[in-house]
Amino acid sequence: MHPQHPVSPTAPLSAELANPYDALLLASFGGPNKPEDVVPFLRNVVRGKNIPDARLEVVGEHYYGFGGRSPINEQNLALRHALEVELRSRGVTLPVIWGNRNWHPYTVDALRDASAFGATRVLAIVTSAYASYSGSRQYREDLAAGSAALIESGFDPLAIDIVRPFFNTPGFVEANIAAVHEAAAALDELDSNAVGVNPAHVIYVTHSIPDTMQDASAVTGPGYREQHEDVQNVIDAALRERHGIEVHSSLAFCSRSGDPRTPWLEPDINDHLQQLATEGVTRVVIAPIGFISDHMEVIYDLDTEALATANDLGIIAVRADTAGVRTEFVAGLVDLVLERAASERGEVTLPHTTGALGALPDVAPPDSCRMRLGEITGIPVIGGTAD
Questions:
Q1: Higher local confidence (pLDDT), 53 or 2
Q2: Is the pLDDT confidence value at 104 over 90?
Q3: Do residues 20 and 78 both lie within one domain?
Q4: What is the C-alpha separation between 249 and 235, in angstroms, rounded?
Q5: How far apart are CA 169 and CA 289, in angstroms?
Q6: SS3 labels along 116-177
Q7: Do residue 155 and residue 276 come from a single domain?
Q8: Under a CB-based contact definition with an 8 Å cutoff, are residues 240 and 233 in contact?
Q9: d(Cα 292, Cα 175) in Å, to the nearest integer?
Q10: Which of 264, 346, 272 is nearest to 305 (CA)?
Q11: Which residue from 11, 91, 189, 201 has the highest number of Cβ atoms inside 10 Å of its Cβ?
């Protein structure tokens, strides 16, 4: 257990803006902090799949190459701090805690901390912008398990809500627009002779998922792929209209795993680079819009593998930043927190979105984002209709 000692409110909330919530939980994936953590962490990730440690050691080479340490932990601490600063700038002194599905501090540790300082109702922000099993329902399962473990260890139960998926919120999208524009400018500096002659191709990249998980994500709303395509369209339009950039773009995927016979979303980023090379593309911006910060998938699958592939193909490539702790992104998350709080107080709210898909519901509907289409596991969830 890793107590976090969050700062409890020391001044009245401005106009009770955060009521009915008295803690904000940053719910994330987790990652190892040292080489000895790598295999135990990966055991947690693949729990129930009977994958031998020898295979996990092979997968762990990605982490060992970076000292056995995932960048996600420091990034979550930075995001937590940024959220605290933004909340306080608005006169809201809501404590921010952090818990993970797969490594310390675990979700139940964070919930114990919240209960210990007197919280009774918690709002969670999941560090995944898009709705799918791995980015939505699996967190709802983890929060339900953490809540049950909290009660089993003698703590009073906490009421837990979850902020809606935020892929099409203005803050997240604006942060990515800025990042892609900056990367395009950096590419022009690297290859100034091609400016105005050979436009860059923007490859938007996200984590691949099995086809059946994609199908399940589309049962109650726009599917995982469609959510990304909506963000792609908004960024493309902004680059054209605001910056006069002639945009050619596509969506690709990274980080597939498991049985190679299982269909996953394609094309893989490396295969896609090879295809673009055959079409004469020589300049690309790789934009990891599927990730909110520089996860291992970004610094290994993109910065290491994809950039090496591009170099081998004679393609000049620049990887755009993730949203990270950009001002517009952090402010947008706080907007979502205050929007949900107002809604729970019974106030009329107007969700702000970009693109064509509209806001996903605050409370997940039945059958949303199952692991496989039509599969009912019976695993308890929170933050949605019991199903």
A1: 53
A2: yes
A3: yes
A4: 10
A5: 13
A6: HCCCCEEEEEECCCCCCHHHHHHHHHHHHHHHHHHHHCCCCCCEEEECCCCCCCHHHHHHHH
A7: no
A8: no
A9: 10
A10: 272
A11: 201
- Two structure tokens written together for 79: 């995001």
The number of beta carbons lying within 10 Å of the beta carbon of residue 171 is: 22
243 lies in the same domain as 203? yes
Gap between the Cα atoms of 351 and 165, Å rounded: 12
Tell me the average pLDDT across 96-122: 97
- Supply the DSSP symbol for 300: I
* Side chain identity, residue 14: S
At position 218, the amino acid (one-letter code) is A
Burial of 56 from C-beta contacts in 10 A (0-12 / 13-18 / 19+): middle
User: In this structure, what token pair is assigned to residue 62?
Assistant: 């990605």
Task: Say how many C-beta atoms besides its own lie within 10 A of residue 211's C-beta.
Answer: 16
pTM across the whole model: 0.94
DSSP 177-222: HHHHHHHHHHHHHHTGGGTTTSPPEEEEEEE--BHHHHHHHTSSSS
Q: In this structure, how many other beta carbons lie within 10 angstroms of the beta carbon of residue 138?
A: 19
Q: Which residues are paired to 26 by β-bridges?
A: 98, 125
Residue listed under structure tokens 């049962």: 219
Closest of 51, 375, 361 to residue 210, by C-alpha: 375
Q: Which of 235, 311, 301, 282 is nearest to 65 (CA)?
A: 301
Query: Do 84 and 131 reside in the same domain of the chain?
Result: yes
Alpha-carbon distances of 30 from 39, 40, 41, 110, 362, rounded to whole Å: 13, 12, 8, 13, 24
Cβ partners under 8 Å of residue 148, min gap 6:
380
Q: Please give the residue range of the domain that contains residue 230.
A: 170-319
Shared-domain flag, residues 143 and 183: no
Quick one: average pLDDT of 73-80? Answer: 98
Position 333, amino acid: L
* pLDDT tens profile 218-249: 999 999 999 999 999 999 999 999 999 889 99
Q: What's the chain's average pLDDT?
A: 93
The residue among 160, 27, 48, 39 whose CA lies nearest residue 98 is 27
Is residue 51 in some structural domain?
A: yes
Q: Provide φ and ψ at 362, rounded to 5°.
A: -65, -40
